[in-house]
Amino acid sequence: MSPKPEPSRNTRANVRSGQNAPSKAMARARNKREERERNWYGPLSRGSYYAITFSAARTCAQSEQLNVSVYPESSLVPMQTIYSSVGWDSYAWGFQAKHSKGDLVIHNTGVEEDPACGPLIDSVAIEFLYPPPLTKYNIIKNGDFEEGPYLFAVMPGGVLIPPIIEDVHSPLPAWMVESLKAVKYIDSDHYSVPQGKCAVELVAGRESALAQIVRTIPGKTYSLTFSVGDAADGCTGYMTVDAYAARGTLKVPYESNGTGGFKKANLKFVATGNRTRVTFLSSNYHMKFDGSLCGPVIDDVLLLSVHNPGRRLR
């Protein structure tokens, strides 16, 4: 079982964004008490993008939510769904710095909850995000998911990326979570990923969708390739990933033994506009033996135009 983080009270720590060389920093709380608000203060690089990662746990069986803000941006992060079996989940929130300095505030709104209880907060980190470039080798940006929020080494539960309606700027650059539930950002230190260091696990069935809008030329044929696998986290069963692009659809079946592995898939489609939405979601809901939510893993997403549609793709 993963170690349980400790809740905090009156925690204030400086976090560096790195004005000359972007860096990451983490402030961990050490007091065992809990209150309605946390503040962290630190320098920022104006105009740059950042991702905040924090761990939280509910203390009441109610629809709790947290307001996360760095002035002038703020979002409500819902905590209605518990994704892990230990009660602690890590969440990510993204923002663009409008000023050279800022206060990070994590606030318990406490609108509908019992005043005697509230969420516990611990292990807060800030990560500088590099905007992923558009290259001639891949129309999809950040298709390998290597750019994303900070992942805690001591908490192997991954990081939840909330729905896009909760974030103005995604903590997973170039990607949106167009669903009611979050997706999970995972790394190869704690999970099996098809390629590189990081990937995304679709943990909430059809309520967990990952999307990106790309530039396309109407009438042109494109080839979308990606990897589907399991995270070697004990999530077993028959999984299916649905991929959508323009009018093209593809269902990719994958049988998971819960020990890792992946397969490649390819979807060819004809663009119908100057912008095309590429979407991935899990057709089914999956749960591990301990009750935690899980699902198929998506990684290594590649989109290229096809110069000769009649030629067979390898």
From TrEMBL:
Compartments reported by the entry: Cell envelope; Secreted
Residue ranges, annotated region (Disordered): 1-38
Every DUF642 domain range: 46-126, 139-302
Keyword check for Glycoprotein: yes
Comp. bias regions, Polar residues: 8-22
Chief site of localization: other
Keyword annotations from UniProtKB, A to Z: Glycoprotein, Secreted, Signal
Pfam family, one: DUF642
The keyword Glycoprotein appears for this protein: yes
Gene Ontology cellular-component annotations: extracellular region
Domain of life (superkingdom): Eukaryota
InterPro entries to which the protein is assigned, alphabetical: DGR2-like_dom, Pectin_Meth_Modulator
Protein name: DUF642 domain-containing protein
Organismal lineage: Eukaryota, Viridiplantae, Streptophyta, Embryophyta, Tracheophyta
